[in-house]
Design goal:
homodimer; 234 residues; alpha+beta; four-stranded antiparallel sheet; 9 helices; elongated; disordered N terminus; DNA-binding
Chain lengths: 234, 234
DNA sequence: CGGCATTTTGACCTCGTTCAACAACTGTGG
DNA sequence: CCACAGTTGTTGAACGAGGTCAAAATGCCG
């Protein structure tokens, strides 16, 4: 008996797929992992497809299995702001999962993407059954909240050039092994949106940073950091 | 035998004090509440005293029992940003509690304040013992994250006048019963810091909103909202 | 009342946006 | 593989929002 007979196509169980990928689950025993795995569904999205959008009721936790997802919001005045980009192992959908509300953000596949979905009620069962998962999620939330407040604080107090410099330093620090070159994880258009400015200003400020001898633009996406300390003082 | 003989002064158990105040605990049975209550300690802070500051290792969850607490951060360039103001029933300290790190914010008593402290390890025990508490905290985190990202998005996309208008609308919506007058919950100096601008600009923009007939400044702290829809379109 | 912090006002100037034109890049079909 | 179209990135010039600095006004508390 094939599994395709039991589960609808395009929505088969993922076996060890993404569940074992995620930090929030990867401390569990194999047995528990399997238990969770069977409740997940794998869904595929084509480039540009929306996984959910503002106003949707949230019913699932989405774990990225393969691909890339843009999370963005529309502000009161209708401007788009890029909130973050999800890579394999990252998850989203949590907002409305734990409080009773609807999504306020949009999640869009940047490339063809595979996602594992865990249903809200299944997840809640697991949280009550294995409380250690909650602690993991709390840790993740805590980090994300920290990141969001830091970002907020930068918007409130730093000028654009500083925000760009700090952004470069941040992504440099995430590079392993340590290096002096970074690859911008998104287009400059998206970067502008992420940093709360315009593509024109991004372009000009990158030039200014280069003129000051702090960076070198190798290609559009490749930046060499020449003077790290200098960047921190911008 | 008096309790003062058992517990050090200024740090006595709070009995039903604040624990029952907080949304994250108030769904529990009286018995469980009491169990938590005996592990809490009550601490008092004088106006201007710091409850914790950036760099501190976090070891406790702090619940406001009485008073008012300012949470602020210093940005990379040393400017202060007001993150939020805590009132009785609110809690803080969670950041470093769930992930292994130090505080990045400062918590300062705005007036003489009483706080209940729950030790990190005690809290973790309760979370594992009563998983429903985790769900409550997850909901709270979720809301706070939502608020922080919304704020971030406003900084990124809205001009100062709009941010002020939206702020007024937000606090108007929190007023119960519904009214058309709001009391600013902080000084205009703090408001400037909260909204990422300067006191001068706050002062000028309030005048502009008044000139446009959208609000009326009754006193420094009392604002009458004349045209709610107009405010939303600013 | 006197002293101190907050708020306001004015003048100036800087930073970043906007608009428009152009250049470079990416992907698609012939 | 090239031509073309659509998108993304760059550059210039002008404008405008908001910051800064200085000083006066108001409010607050001992």
């Amino acid at each position: 008996m094939s599994k395709d007979a039991i589960y609808p196509k395009n929505s088969v169980p993922t076996h060890t797929g993404c569940v074992s990928l995620v930090p929030i689950f990867n401390h569990l025993e194999k047995e528990q992992l399997d238990e969770i795995t069977v409740t997940t569904q794998s869904v595929s999205y084509k480039k540009q497809e929306l996984i959910y959008h503002a106003g949707d009721e949230s019913t699932s936790l989405y774990i990225i299995h393969k691909g890339k997802v843009r999370i963005y919001r529309l502000s009161e005045s209708g401007k788009e702001q890029l909130v973050r980009i999800l890579n394999p192992g990252d998850f989203t959908g949590e907002m409305a999962l734990f409080s009773e509300s609807t999504h306020e953000t949009y999640a869009e596949a940047m490339v063809d993407t595979k996602i594992c979905r865990i249903d809200r009620s299944d997840l809640q069962d697991f949280l009550l059954k294995y409380p250690s998962i909650s602690l993991k999620i709390l840790a993740e939330f805590s980090n994300r909240l920290e990141a969001s407040e830091k970002q907020s604080s930068r918007f409130a107090t730093e000028k654009v050039e500083t925000r760009i410099a700090l952004f470069l330093v941040d992504i440099l620090n995430e590079e392993l092994p340590k290096t002096t070159e970074v690859t911008l994880p998104m287009s400059k258009k998206d970067l502008a949106s992420y940093l709360g400015t315009t593509p024109e200003t991004i372009s000009r400020k990158f030039n200014e940073l280069e003129d000051k001898g702090l960076i070198k633009q190798l290609t559009h996406k490749q930046i060499k950091i020449i003077d790290l300390d200098g960047l921190l003082l911008v």
